[in-house]
Amino acid sequence: MEHVVVRTTAAGMPLAVQRAGREWLIGAEPVRWYERVSWWESQRRMPKGLSRMDVEVWRVQARLGRNARSELTTMELLRDQQGGGWKLRLASAA
User: Fold this and answer.
1) DSSP 23
2) What residues contact 64, with CB distance under 8 A and at least 6 apart?
3) From CA 88, how far away is CA 75, in angstroms rounded?
4) Which of 26, 30, 37, 61 counts the most CB atoms within 10 A of its CB?
5) Do 91 and 75 contact (CB within 8 A), yes or no?
6) Could you tell me if 31 and 15 are in contact, meaning their C-beta atoms sit under 8 angstroms apart?
7) Burial profile 49-77: b = 16 or more Cβ within 10 angstroms, e = fewer
8) Is the pLDDT of residue 8 over 90?
9) Are 79 and 55 in contact (CB under 8 A)?
């Protein structure tokens, strides 16, 4: 998974995604949910202080830059539990 930078509102809703040096602006209402992950598939031990691994996921539709005619791309963003940043799980043209 690719690490990305997500700019959010004060309430935590995504506004923009920076990926590979380019900014993608959110162009539709994002959807949020939580998933339980199998921590043993990515780590050798359960991270200290966590009794379970629920991961925040956002599905956003974004367009490249401020070009209103740019095609929307769907992205699934996962909150990185260890670093607090974001990872891109999926990106596809809408």
Assistant:
1) E
2) 22, 23, 24, 70, 73
3) 7
4) 26
5) yes
6) no
7) eeeebebebbbbbbbeeeeeeeebbebbb
8) yes
9) yes
Is pLDDT at 58 greater than 60 in this prediction?
yes
Sign of CA dihedral 39, 44, 47, 52: positive
69-76 long-range contacts, Cβ below 8 Å, gap at least 24?
A: 72/27, 72/28, 73/24, 75/17, 75/24
Cα–Cα distance measured from residue 83 to residue 66, given in angstroms and rounded to the nearest whole number:
29
Structure tokens at 47: 């991270």
Residue 92 has, within 13 A of its CA and on its CB side, a CA count of 5
SS3 39: helix
The band of 9, judged by pLDDT with boundaries at 50, 70 and 90, is very high
Contact 50, 28 (CB under 8 A): no
